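Weekly puzzle thread! Below is a chain. First person to post its structure in token form gets bragging rights.
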Amino acid sequence: MFRVGSWLYSKAAPSNASTQSLDAVVESQDPAAYIMDDDVDSAERDLEKGDSSFHKLGKGIVTFVRATLGLEQDIMRQAATRLAEAETSAYNDQYKAHHNANAVNAYHSSIYAPGTEYLLCQCMAQLMAALVGVLSESLSESIKAFYKLRKAYIALDSIAQMEEKYLKENNLSLGVDSRFDSADIMLNTNSTEGSAVPSQPTRTAAEAVNPSLQGADSASKVSLSKSMSTTNLEDVTNESTQRRLSRLTLGSETDVTKEGEGPQSNLNTNEDPDLFSHPVDHFIHSGTSLCFGLLLLFISMVPPALNRILYIIGFRGDRSRGLRLLWQASRSHTLTGAIAALTLLAFYNSFVRAADILPDPVEGNEEDIEGYPMRRLENLLIDMRARFPHSQLWVLEESRMRGANREVEEAMRLIHGGKKSPLKQVQALHVFERSIDAMHLHEYELCSQSFIECSELNSWSRALYFYIAAAAQVELYRRHLKDSPETAKKHAKKAEELFRMAPSQAGKKKFLARQLPFDVFVTRKITKWDARAKERNIPFIDAIGVSPIEEMNFFWNGHSRMPDDQLEVALQNLAWSESNETWASEPLDEQAVLALLRASLLRAQRKHSEARDILKSQILCHDRTLFKGSNRDDWTCPSAHYEMAANLWMERHCYRPIGRATAVPASEKNHQVKDEATRMAEDEQKVQECKEWLEKVYKWEAYELDARIGLKVTTAQETITKWEEAHAK
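Winning reply:
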């Protein structure tokens, strides 16, 4: 398998030899991949040695990785500039390659039209530029970004057509668990097109590619302009494109690690090596998998509040197919494979494990990618750490994986006091992750100090950093209030200082030209407490309501990550508010905050009946309009609907938690022996009720932090859809 250096580090080629720079595999180093080993200086230095489209794309990738890791506007602007240069250069090279297709030194692919490698470079640049645009502070740039996504989607679709055309013309079969599902191609059972079994026997990939076994292949003569002419902005439809995408995914549903096999045994290795053995074809093949996977996954994750933007690009995502393409791309020992691996680890450990309504692990296949393929991810991480032994980026991902599996102490040990990354953006992520872990473990001093350090390393959301640092000081104040008033006073002073710093930092960063959601939340909370202090004529510290640190634990998925003992600590923090003599006179929205957080903690303890009773009696029984108004916490009511759905999902007889989970208490177990039909009927009823609660949240009007709750809802709806499809068979 060729290394990434063969397409990023090779010397610039003459303009009339479109693929000579790719074909000359003479270098052994991987300059752009250096960034995956925390060595940005070497990456920049080596990439400066060439001026080809691939060098320019490499420079764009390096800056893009830095930009997405740190979310710093100056780095994002630099990334946008470099990616635009790479896109323009690749466009020009594509044009030259197409018009010099018969050049003697040019590589003639049997699969792809001349210049397809440069078309893919354009797609890569467009996708990265689109993400940078979405993260920018400009609404116009964000809108342009979604158009770039559509443009990339159309170009990728044309590449998919080339691969499909080649397979059909050669009656090619790659095996049952290859990237292409030959049965779907030949029988096309999911299409309205012909479904007859072909009369000609299928040939192997080796027969199709080897010139000594076949005649001249017409695919090499296909014009790129012809392939693109069938796919313009108006002609692309979900149906036709999704059929082509179905050819680009793993046919196997079960790539399970076998006992005794090495780190890569988690990955499918049955694809015929002859078909994509040439560096150019491999680059296009793996790159297309990566780009399609990223695109489909990204669109599938858009929360309900932003769904209207999808009308701009006119297509929908497909999480399952996107994941399969990314797993496919992760097999490549190139920068493409490393980016795919990083995307997968970040998605599963940050987004999937942030959700509560996830697909059940498949019996006999614990590695099913629809849920959380723990062993497969562990093996992927082992592989990446072996390839990039100096990088703290992969240590960070291991820490996140530990935290996602409720091993928070081990997660923090991995990144607390360990080796520092020379890449500032990676180091900032380490400190942030340590801060979150300390918050989940109720280590208040470390939590406060770490979030203050975050504010020094990263400027993305300083208001949030100061707010959580102050919230940790609030808990220290309350802990020492009775036994050590002087100590409590010091923490009260520190808490107020940090809270006062937060609003001054809010609004400095924007997303889609709007303030960051947590900036709005932080500012409103402090305004609310100021008003309470003035109204009640009490110190600011005593006007703070239900534990702000537990609110943050809720929003940062702490309840699903905390060890059992920390769940109890969290419940005690909530009880502190009820111990105050003024609690009975607290307004509805404040009491709803406590009720919601307590119900969430009880659900984490698998006490579902208690959790549902609290939600019904203290939140859901009230009209939703009562939670609205100036300075009120309006997020509790829609969140309570989501919590009802999560409880129902976890109460099913067939529910199997992912990873190490809290045991079901004896009081919650159903000791009545039921036959399979009864259990299935009860599960179906719970799923239907779960779906109804989710629909209510999905259709909710705008509310505070709706995008954050919306991500969970989107994942949950994907899960319900997959469950219904599976049980309809």
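Puzzle host: Confirmed. Bonus trivia for everyone else. Confidence is low (pLDDT under 50) at residues 1-29, 174-237, 239-273.
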